[in-house]
Write a structure and sequence with these properties.
alpha+beta, about 150 residues, five-stranded antiparallel β-sheet
């Protein structure tokens, strides 16, 4: 669901937080969808043998959730130009990750947003996202089949 702002992005503005329940299904499905078959992302026993208390989210799933956070805020015409993240504390099943963002800079229709995602263990992800939000997006192309 888009919570697209009604005004142009402003440096210093804060995005509303997004709470994401971290489930075992989210972790495993994200790993499978991104073709990351490392056992620590789907096999709890393997994860424990390698020192983790349980399976944990992979960086590609986190990257996708950060992208979702930005596009949910800026709306369906938002185009991600660059996503640069770094992981910290792992996301395990039962955690809740809370994403927050601050617009650091605006240049025309492009904004740079600082994103932080935290859970009960600490900071899971930090990074910046560059997003372009066209002021006058092109209308959707007509359906060649004539459907609406």
């Amino acid at each position: 669901m888009s919570t697209a702002p009604t005004t142009a992005p402003t440096a210093g503005a804060k995005l509303p937080p997004l709470e994401i329940p971290v489930t075992r299904t989210l972790i495993v499905a994200g790993a499978i969808a991104s073709r990351d078959y490392q056992d620590v992302h789907h096999d709890a026993e393997s994860a424990r043998r390698k020192g983790s208390p349980d399976v944990f989210m992979n960086i590609l799933t986190t990257n996708g959730l950060v992208g979702r956070y930005i596009t949910d805020h800026f709306g369906p015409t938002a185009m991600l130009r660059k996503v640069a993240i770094r992981l910290g504390a792992p996301n395990h099943p039962g955690d809740t990750m809370v994403l927050t963002g601050t617009i650091e800079a605006v240049d025309g229709d492009t904004a740079t947003v600082r994103v932080v995602g935290a859970n009960a263990l600490g900071t899971h992800v930090t990074g910046t996202v560059t997003v372009t939000v066209p002021a006058n997006p092109a209308p959707p192309a007509p359906d060649p089949e004539g459907r609406s």
